[in-house]
Amino acid sequence: MVRFSRNATGTLFVGGALSLTIVALAYPTMLGFNKVSTAQDRVIAQTQWGPLTEQDRDFVVKVRAAGLWEYPLGKVALEKGTTPEVKEAGRHLIDGHAALDAACRKIAPMLNVTLPNVASPQQQGFVNTIETSDGKQFDSNFANILRTTHGSIFNTIAKIRSTTKNSLVRSLADMANNTVLDHITVMEKTGFVNFDQALFQQTTPPKLPDTDLTPPAPQPGAPMVVLTPPPSPTSTPIAIPGEQAGAGATPSPTIG
Q1: What was the pLDDT predicted at 204?
Q2: Closest to 6 in 3D by CA, of 111, 135, 119
Q3: Is 120's pLDDT higher than 50?
Q4: In sequence order, which residues have a C-beta less than 8 Å from that of residue 237 and are 6 or more positions away?
Q5: pLDDT tens digits for 202-222?
Q6: Nearest to 25 by CA among 202, 218, 215, 224
Q7: Range 190-204 burial, b when 16+ CB lie within 10 A, else e
Q8: Distance between first and last Cα of the chain
Q9: Which strands sit side by side in the sheet containing 254-255, from one edge to the other?
Q10: What is the pTM of this model?
Q11: Spatial contact of 121 and 211, defined as CB atoms under 8 Å apart
Q12: Which of 10, 38, 86, 87 is surrounded by the most beta carbons within 10 Å?
């Protein structure tokens, strides 16, 4: 198991985890498509909320996948964090990703998007590495890794928000933007973030095989994993366009 020094989070491992947040983690074959990395703007479905592209679908899956490993780390931070700031950051991860998870589970069937139930092998190893550190080592690993990954997905959110023609995806991007900015802020407030290293790892992620980057497909008939919100959640639920007007019925998308 790779361990991190107190002042550095380990370039290879953090970079590997970072790339998980950036790359597409959808299941194109399950949806009847072949993954085409050079055509992410290709329309794959026509829905009542606007056309759905490959990158739109991948974004919904990325948000779900992020919660599957960051939400558990929030709980670990409450147990092992050595400062009030680290514990507070853990609370924000739990609250924010529970709300984002609920949003993904709500809109995924509306857009015919298949969601993962388990994080990818690399993500699972990432969680294990943080869980096995202790004391100030834990605080440093936790803050630096989460600051790096959130900083990267922040750029992805901006791209999706500025380009998508699908109103459901726009709503998710709005919610994710607020949540990720909040998480970046609380990680920085811990005082453990090495900005030079975090920014370097954000911009130079290593290339990893697809088998490391892709979470396993959900088992047929298996219940969907639910990230339970805290007793007093503060995150704002996703705003579904037209929902109050009765326009929230599940559509039958035309797959293109």
Answers
A1: 84
A2: 135
A3: yes
A4: 99, 102, 103
A5: 888 768 788 887 777 888 899
A6: 215
A7: bebbbeebbeebbee
A8: 44
A9: 50-53, 43-47, 254-255
A10: 0.80
A11: yes
A12: 86
